[in-house]
Design goal:
Radius of gyration: 23 Å
Largest sheet: none
Number of helices: 13
Shape: globular
Structural class: mainly alpha
CATH superfamily: MetI-like
CATH architecture: Orthogonal Bundle
Distance between the termini: 42 Å
Number of strands: 0
Helix content: over 70%
């Protein structure tokens, strides 16, 4: 083997590595630095080093808003993760059963993933229109008058529904791929032992889907904690901060706040980053342990 042969893998990886450094690592470092300044984002404005003032303001002066955003984020993340993965694994199980029309169903479920967050958000914004939206008109047939996105008691649950609908297809495809990788001999051995379709799903399929469950749970948790696009299109964090997650709070503080303090928004983003890293590490450790045990 020539000496240059071992260099080519690094040469091929170099463009992706450079792009990752420029688009991911450097912005992250810049955010951490801006969180320690009074950066306003205004052209020509002086930037002063303020140390931990932004963090002090976040944990003391803005404590109530922080706790409110953390609570909304927790509810949003937990409900989306549980419901999205539960429904996705059931749909994948049905599609893996060689049912008629499974290709059409698979395409329909996956379609929202292709459309993207903005299109999905605008679609359901129209669907939930309090005057003429199809969902509103349907509820009126049951004598229910509701403004789902404009009422604090229902807005978060409407956003949760849209978030699940938008990402269900991605989770389903991962579960379906995991199921199709399970050897048929395992199910045949289960039938010999007298397992039914449901018991086979519960005691054979679910345990063997450990890697797929790990991937989907981590992606759902990280996506719901950091995401803002869908919520921004649907409610912009309202009404009455009922849907203001950490992600939407960072975005609004950086670009739409009356005080317009990107430095303070960067501090929120760093707290969000620490939360995501901590949860991801703990969840990955626990889920990986479960895979080994199974």
């Amino acid at each position: 083997m020539s000496r240059t042969a071992g260099v080519w893998p690094y040469v091929c990886l170099a463009p992706a590595l450079i792009a990752f450094l420029l688009l991911e690592v450097l912005p992250a470092l810049a955010t951490s630095i801006f969180s320690l300044t009074d950066y306003t984002g205004l052209p020509g404005a002086a930037i002063h080093w303020v140390g931990l003032d932004n963090y002090t303001s976040l944990f003391v002066a803005q404590q109530s808003f922080l706790l409110r955003a953390l609570g909304v984020t927790a509810i949003f993340s937990l409900m989306v993760t549980a419901l999205q993965n539960g429904v996705a694994v059931l749909i994948a199980w049905l599609l893996n059963s060689q049912l008629r029309g499974q290709l059409a169903v698979r395409s329909l479920v996956f379609l929202p993933v292709v459309l993207g967050a903005t299109i999905n958000g605008l679609t359901w914004y129209v669907m939930f229109n309090p005057l003429s939206g199809p969902v509103t008109l349907l509820l009126q047939h049951f004598a229910i008058r509701a403004n789902l996105l404009g009422t604090a008691a229902t807005a978060l649950y409407a956003v949760i529904w849209v978030q699940i609908w938008a990402n269900l297809g991605f989770s389903m495809m991962i579960y379906l791929a995991g199921m199709q990788a399970i050897p048929m001999e395992i199910y045949e051995a289960g039938k010999i032992d007298g397992t039914s379709a449901w018991s086979g799903f519960r005691f054979l399929t679910i345990p063997l889907l450990g890697p797929s469950i790990t991937i989907n749970v981590l992606l759902a948790i990280i996506g719901t904690i950091t995401g803002f696009e869908l919520i921004f299109v649907l409610t912009d964090g309202g009404p009455a901060l009922a849907t203001q997650t950490l992600g939407i709070w960072v975005f609004n503080q950086a670009f739409f706040s009356n005080t317009h303090l990107p430095g303070f928004a960067a501090a929120i983003a760093m707290v969000q980053f620490v939360i995501v890293i901590a949860i991801a590490l703990v969840m990955q450790h626990q889920l990986r342990r479960r895979e080994v045990v199974l």
